[in-house]
Specification:
Structural class: alpha+beta
Number of helices: 3
Largest sheet: 4 strands, mixed
Oligomer: single chain
Shape: globular
Helix content: 25-40%
Length: 152
C-alpha cells in the first residue's frame, strides 16, 4: 500500500501537494539585479553570477563603485527556513544593494536551492559552493578566472 501525503503548507508562501509537487505563491516580487537603488545610484555596482553550473546556484554581487582596492565581503544567505525566499526578492535586493555604501564592503547574496524540492543538505552544499567560488575569485583575481567569466 502506498501512503498518500496530505497537502502541507506555510500559509501564503508554499504548498506541498499530494503528488509532492511544490507550489510557491508569489507574495514578494522578484526584481532584476539592476532594479531599484542600483539602477539609479552610481555608487553601487551590481552583477548576477552563476557560481555552480551543475546545480545552477547563483548569487547577486554588490560592490561600492568608488572602492579603490580590495574591500571586505559579506556573504548573505536569506532566511525563510530554507523553504522560501530568493536573492531576487525585492526586500532583500533593496537592502543589500545599499549595504556596500553604508558599510564600505562588497556583498554576495546567495540564491540556494530550496527545500522541500531539494533535500535540506542542498542549501548547505550551495552555500559551500558559493564560498568556494568567492575564494576562487579572490585567488585568481580580476583577469584570470578559471571558469571563463570575468572575475568580480
Amino acid at each position: 500500500m502506498v501512503a498518500v501525503m496530505a497537502p502541507s503548507s506555510i500559509h501564503g508562501l508554499i504548498c506541498v501537494c499530494k503528488d509532492r509537487h511544490v507550489e510557491r505563491l508569489p507574495t514578494i516580487p522578484d526584481v532584476p539585479c539592476t532594479w531599484g537603488s542600483t539602477a539609479v545610484a552610481s555608487a553601487v555596482l551590481a552583477r548576477y553570477v552563476v557560481v555552480d553550473r551543475t546545480t545552477v546556484v547563483s548569487a547577486r554581487l554588490y560592490a561600492p563603485a568608488a572602492a579603490a582596492g580590495k574591500v571586505p565581503v559579506v556573504v548573505y544567505f536569506h532566511g525563510d527556513s530554507f523553504c522560501v525566499g530568493s536573492a531576487a526578492w525585492s526586500c532583500y535586493h533593496e537592502f543589500l544593494a545599499q549595504l556596500p555604501v553604508w558599510a564600505g564592503c562588497a556583498v554576495m547574496s546567495v540564491d540556494y536551492r530550496l527545500a522541500p524540492d531539494n533535500l535540506l543538505r542542498a542549501a548547505f552544499d550551495d552555500g559551500l559552493a558559493a564560498v568556494r567560488w568567492l575564494r576562487q575569485q579572490a585567488v585568481y583575481g580580476r583577469n584570470s578566472s578559471t571558469s571563463g567569466e570575468v572575475a568580480w
